[in-house]
Amino acid sequence: MGAVEEDPFAIFLRPPSNESVGERAERLAQEAEAKKISDQIDEQLKAERAALKKQKDTVRVLLLGQSESGKSTTLKNFRMHYARESWEAERASWRAVIQLNVIRSIITIVETLQAEVDGEPYDAAPNTPSTPKSGIPSFALENPAHDVYNPNRSHGGLPPNSPAVLSVNNNLARSSLSSLLTSKHELLKVRLGPLRRVEADLQRRLGAASIEEHDGAAAGHGPLGVDIDVANGKKLRPEFSVRRLNDALQNSRQSHRGGSQHGHGSGPPTPGDASSSGSPLGDEPTEVLSSCLDDMKALWSDDAVRVVLKKRKVRLEETAGFFLDDLDRVVRRDYEPTDDDVVRARLRTLAVQEYRVRFEPTGSILSGGIGANAGKEWLLYDVGGSRTMRNAWIPFFDNIQAIIFLAPVSCFDERLSEDSRVNRLEDSFLLWRSICSSKLLARTCMILFLNKCDLLRKKLKAGVLVKKYLPSYGDRPNDPSSVVKYLREKFKEILRQHSPEPRSSYFYATSVVDTKATASTIKAVRDSILKDYLKSAELV
Ligand SMILES: Nc1nc2c(ncn2[C@@H]2O[C@H](COP(=O)(O)OP(=O)(O)OP(=O)(O)O)[C@@H](O)[C@H]2O)c(=O)[nH]1
Ligand SMILES: [Mg+2]
């Protein structure tokens, strides 16, 4: 090659030959500005590309199911292993929730004793559905498989709240055990009185999440909220906010820091703060609970109390946030919640909460050639499961890889807290059917957790008969594995019948408070979701 030829565009780029010093300075300034803008645009494009890639690489998973089904508990299991840092940072804040859980259990006992003394009638079978009080529609099930007790259908025999049955119950109630309750119990009640004030204080700090919904709150709400037509794919305006559980926990810390009204003067149980491990001075709830420890233990271990609770079918051990067997430990001034305590603590979810977890590569699963980061980062969405909150779910149905649906299997004889006319199992079936039939979710992988198997085991061992509440169960054995198998088939059948197109699905029997067993389930779930995710990413 000969001499380098001149760039044909050089003529346009070359400064004019008669350029003055001032003009040159101005030109150079303009060129520098143009370069700056061009660099900024490049940076912006690069960031947008990276964000888009990250978004594509992120797996989105939605946790669904009725209230108290175990969604947040499942999420806690994920976070405990795969978002350890934020989990640790939050741990100490759960003490306030556990304190509130303890107080609630004690108040339940006191109120049950009072009802006995007052001779209040009680529902001899409190977990059977009762007769509707108003004209709210019941949910007629097309599928004969869903034959859980529906008060609007004839099941033969007397409805549980029929006058005849109530009269028998009232007679039972009149044969009151109140004679067992002595001045000792009256004294315990008085001495435990300050817990009411602490309950109000903790509720104020933790906000609405700490208050369970009352019966009737869901009047006019169907299985998927009101005024929605998920099956037809109509979308709702997203009238919700993504909020973190941390808001509630943070509130607790902040108001605590602002100084207790009752002025014990110590700092709050802030994560990482020395006071979180229990300052010698403590705070008001801690102080009051500590001073009530002996009385709470005396109440919980009292034989007459146990007899009354049993008669009134108050099974505290099976209720959310049960810590009465751990009083010595959780009421200590230097108490720090363990992983298991946090998992068992009950704080209901409001709105929709978003959590990020990160999986490190596991063997071949993540080396699918899609991209080094594909599938490592997951966004988990936890929602409030009450019928009053299900409207807020719909905007999250877009772009979801998998749904983990929690269906508690122990609840065949229970009713929704927000609407006591609705049997919990029936609600789960209806909700599952709505989710399965949603066109927005047609391609979403469905994972069903048949949850609370531990409680099912206890309930069946106590002699509760499934067929009494689920007539189609017939004469199958009344044991946990037969019941789980039967319910799994029912859920599978609904999925098959109502999914708009064939889809991946996985079914697990779980007790998500068992963190060890759940760790293996989560690994299996993770691998299944990732396999599906990578398959669909390859197809795109
Ligand atoms: N024994 C037992 N308790 C469980 C199980 N799963 C959840 N729980 C308890 O049930 C209570 C409710 O669980 P959550 O995870 O808060 O329920 P949720 O579905 O998030 O409820 P909402 O936030 O109201 O929608 C908690 O106290 C849990 O510890 C289980 O498998 N066995
Ligand atoms: Mg929750």
From TrEMBL:
It holds the Pfam family G-alpha. Gene3D superfamilies: GI Alpha 1, domain 2-like (1.10.400.10), P-loop containing nucleotide triphosphate hydrolases (3.40.50.300). PROSITE patterns: G_ALPHA (PS51882). GO terms for molecular function: G protein-coupled receptor binding; G-protein beta/gamma-subunit complex binding; GTP binding; GTPase activity; metal ion binding. GO terms for cellular component: cytoplasm; heterotrimeric G-protein complex. Residues 120-163, 249-287 are annotated as: Disordered. InterPro entries: Gprotein_alpha_su (IPR001019), GproteinA_insert (IPR011025), P-loop_NTPase (IPR027417). GTP binds at N451, K452, C453, D454. Signal peptide: none annotated. Keywords: GTP-binding, Magnesium, Metal-binding, Nucleotide-binding, Transducer. Transmembrane segments: none annotated. One of its GO terms (biological process) is adenylate cyclase-modulating G protein-coupled receptor signaling pathway. Mg(2+) binds at T349. This is G-protein alpha subunit.
